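Cross-posting from the chemistry board since nobody answered there.

I work mostly on the small-molecule side, so proteins are not my area. We synthesized copper (II) ion and want a rough idea of how it might sit in this target. Sequence and SMILES are below. Is it possible to get a predicted 3D structure of the two together?
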Amino acid sequence: MGEGKLWLERKFDRRLLLAGGLAAAGGTVVAANAARGQTSHAGHEMPAVAAAERPPAHLSAHGAMITVGEVDDARNGFDPSKLLSDWYTGTVSMLPEGRTLRTFEVTAEDKEIEIAPGIMFPAWTYNGRVPGPTLRATEGERLRIVFRNQGSHPHSMHFHGIHAARMDGVPGAGLIGPGEEFVYEFDARPFGCHLYHCHALPLKRHIQKGMYGAFVIDPDPARHPEHEAVARSRLLGTPENAGWQEFVMVMNAFDTNFDNENEVYAVNTVAHAYAKKPIRVLKDKPVRIYLVNVVEFDPINSFHLHANFFDYYNQGTTLTPTLKTVDLITQCQAERGILEFHFRDHEPGLYMFHPHQSEFTELGWSGMFDVVEAVS
Ligand SMILES: [Cu+2]
């Protein structure tokens, strides 16, 4: 009984953090905005906020269950709307054997980031952003990742891929101290939607502090004659790939008070970013999402698309769907996959996506697609 009551109180505390309509938590938001010269008031009229910056009306009607105010993207150094299609393809050179060598440079650094309006989080980052850069390569290339640790703790990059033990990014194999550098090198395989994360101990703390990112390996069409067209559509830089609207979404969460529970949930870090600024998609162009779940402390996460169904490629390692015509998938931590769908037969409008854990949705993880006929 006592434990149940404690649990309830804790849940209530977590909601307080984001529910703008509650004055106690709203104070934080107001204070943060005041410091920035804004005059919005949590949960009340926002006369100084332009109509375009307000959440869509129906979301407000949802009981104002989204954050109030704006996160300072410039101070964070990353904009959730741009993260969606910000592929880091590194620099390319040719090895003597005629194979492509793709080199990435990644630096670990401590950085305070704003994860919801007025809520700062002391993150550990790759290249100053959370999630870290989306590394994108092509199957069969040689990859070289130059990793520098300018943070205050030992860190590593542990790749979900195929590589030698000494490249595994675990203690004794690529885990480096502050001020040190390590070069990971391995072949890009298998093709798919993968991830990397720090493997320093305690693992749950290093991951939860923001040390993770997506790692996409596009299939080489020449190696897949039986599904060449599909492979080409996945290969960045081809005309076939340009026919898609591709987005990377890393489902993450933040434990702001170090109680081994998350207070803020999101895709790509900023709570409700895509609810406030819906992701514009053309109705005639198919959508492909590289979805990765890195949430610590909660055993499972999910992705549910409203008013539509999608095909799913578990871990992205196949060229035929592993699930067809579903509107929800679940992912454990480090699970990931590719979603494909389109709005060809839909009328334009706002189409929601969120996990089907309502708590996550209320605490920051929900968004909208703004389906339009053409981009104006
Ligand atoms: Cu680390």
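Reply from a structural biologist on the board:
Welcome over. Reading the output above for you: The pocket of copper (II) ion is lined by residues 124, 155, 198, 200, 206, 211 (CB under 6 Å). The longest helix spans residues 2-18. Happy to explain the token format if needed.
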